[in-house]
Amino acid sequence: MTTQPVAKKLDFFERYLSLWVLLCMVAGIALGKVFPDFIHRVSAMEFGEGSHVNVPIAVLIWMMIYPMMLKIDFRGLGAVIKRPRGLLITLFVNWLVKPFSMALLGWIFIQWLFSSVLGWIEPDTAKNYVAGLIILAAAPCTAMVFVWSYLTDGDGPYTLAQVAINDLVMIFAFAPIVMILVGISGIHIPAAVLITSVVVFIVIPLAAGVISRTALIRSKGETWFNESFLPRFRPMAIVALLATLVLIFAFQAENILTNWTAVLLLAIPILIQVYFNSGLAYSLMRYFGVRHNVATPGALIGASNFFELAVAVAITLFGATSPAALATVVGVLVEVPVMLSVCHLCVGSRPWYERGLARKS
Questions:
Q1: Are 117 and 138 in contact (CB under 8 A)?
Q2: Which end is more exposed in the chain, N or C (fewer Cβ atoms within 10 Å of the end residue's Cβ)?
Q3: Residue 305, beta-bridge partner list
C-alpha cells in the first residue's frame, strides 16, 4: 500500500478520534462539576470492602479488553517466533527501557526540577505524580495499538502476536516493576492490592478471551467466529472506551480545573518518553533489518500506554482524586494527539526506512 491512502486514513482519524476524546473530556469534566456527589458515589463503588477496585471502571475495561482478547490466536505465535527480531526489540523497549526511562524522567522533571529546585510542586505530591507516571509507563498499549497499526499499514497478525506476548509478560512483570520503581521513589505500595489489580484487569479478561475463543471455534467453526461473532463486539468496545474516558475525566474534574499547571508539567516527561521510546524502537528495527509493517506497530507499542489499566490501577492504589491518578489521566490527554503524530512520522519516514533495509539486503 502506498503512503497516500495511509495518510488519508491518518487524516480521518486525526480529525474524528481527537474530536471524540475532546468531547469525552468536556462531558466528563461537566459531569464532575455539575454532579459531584453522584460522581463521588460512583468513584467509591468497590468490589467488596477494602478491595479498592472500582466497579464501573473494571466493568468498562473488561468490555473494552475482552473483544480484543478474543482476536488473539496463540497458535499464530509460532510463525512470529520464527522471525523474532521485531518481537524481541518490542519486548526490550517495553520492559527494559520504558518503565525505567519514565522513572528517571519523572524524578528529573517532577521531583528534582519542578519540586526541589523550582518549588512548584509539594514534595509528597511530586512523589505521587511520579508513582502515577511509573504505573502509566509500566503498562504497554494493548487495545489502541490496533488502531495505530491500522493507521500505519502495520502487519495485523504480527501486531496481534506482539500484543499477546506483551499481555503474558504483563501478568508477571507489571506488579514487580511498579512495586520496585514506585518504592524507589519513596512510596510503599501494598503487594496484595497491586496483585489484585493485575488479576482483575489483566488475567480475567485475558483468560475469558482465550477460553471463549477456543470453545466457540471448536463448536461453531472459525469462519462463524470471525465473520458473525466478533463483529458483534465492535460497538461495545467503542462505547466502553468512550464511557471509560468520560468517567476518568469526571473523577479528575476538580484536579484538572484547579491544577491545570500540573497537567502541563506532567505532560513534559510523558511527551519526552513517548518520542524517545518510539524513536528507539523504530531505529533498532531499521538497524536490525525488520520489515516496515512490523517496525511501525512495534514502535507504537513501545510509545503508547495501556492507559485504561494505568488509570484503574492508580485509582485502586491511591484513590480516584489522587495526584497519581491525575498523572495517568494526563497520559490519556496526551495519548491520542501524540500517537497520531508518531503515526505520521512512521508513515512519512517509510522511504528513509526502506532505503536502510535495501542497503542491508
A1: no
A2: C
A3: 140
**DSSP secondary structure letter of residue 155:** -
Q: What does each of the 361 residues of the chain score in pLDDT, given as a tens digit?
A: 444 455 555 555 555 666 777 888 899 999 999 998 998 888 888 776 655 677 888 888 888 778 877 877 766 666 666 778 888 898 899 999 999 999 999 999 999 999 999 999 999 999 999 999 999 999 887 767 777 887 888 887 778 777 778 888 888 888 899 989 988 877 877 787 788 778 887 888 888 888 888 898 889 888 888 888 888 877 787 788 788 888 888 888 888 888 888 889 999 999 999 999 999 999 999 999 999 988 998 888 878 888 778 888 888 888 877 889 889 988 888 877 888 888 889 888 999 999 888 887 6
Closest CA to 339 of 89, 70, 150: 150
Kindly list the distances between the CA atom of residue 75 and the CA atoms of 2, 32, 140, 213, in Å, as whole numbers in the listed order.
30, 45, 22, 12
Contact criterion met (CB below 8 Å) for 234 and 67 = yes
In degrees rounded to 5, what are phi and psi of residue 121?
-130, 135
- For 286, residues 6+ apart whose C-beta sits below 8 A from its C-beta are 295, 353, 356, 357
Distance CA 158, CA 258 (A): 43
**Rounded CA separation 69/142 (Å):** 9
| SS3 label, residue 130 | helix
C-alpha cell recorded at residue 327: 498523572
Distance in angstroms (rounded) separating the CA atoms of residues 318 and 136: 14
